[in-house]
Amino acid sequence: MSYNKDIYPIKSLNFDISKLQEALDQTLKTIPYKGNAVNCISLTRIPGDEGSDLRGIYWTRPTSSGEEEQRERYVDESKYTEFHPKLIDSYFYEIYKELCKHYEIGRVRVLKLLPRSTLSWHRDPEARIHIPITTNPGSILIVDNFATNLPADGSAYFMNTRKYHAAINGGEENRVHIVATVLNLY
After folding, report:
1. Fewer CB atoms < 10 Å away: N or C end of the chain?
2. Residue 133 pLDDT > 60, yes or no?
3. What is the pTM of this model?
4. Domain 7-182, what fold?
């Protein structure tokens, strides 16, 4: 694998991939994915709020003019301080606590990208940490003009999603990542 300054492994964070996959299987028995284009399970929420923001503000350049357009609405990531009560006994909670030791964390979600699909070219207001749970060789993340595959081996990866980026799942299996918003990097 090759990495650069905008997408790289966080050497101080490594998790048990078997426990991650088991936690996903257990979670899916009680909490389904939500959303259409974005398949999401929210691991954190605003305290007491049963709803969740699957998507938040982002910017894109959707046409040949190259002009940037804002999409969706602003989400105050700093308010997502409560871990989902149904998942407190899961390995996901252990991961959340470990991330919080190192970073100020906003929303933490399990995101599924279906086979043969893509996420649009866009940028977000904050950086993200990705922890692959399931992937395949055709699952590619792109930041600016740099592309790489993140293996599902328990590693956590920093991704500078403040830059333009996209995700491609060109394989025939789901790509599932834990994605945590990092609030204190910039």
Report:
1. C
2. yes
3. 0.95
4. Jelly Rolls (2.60.120)
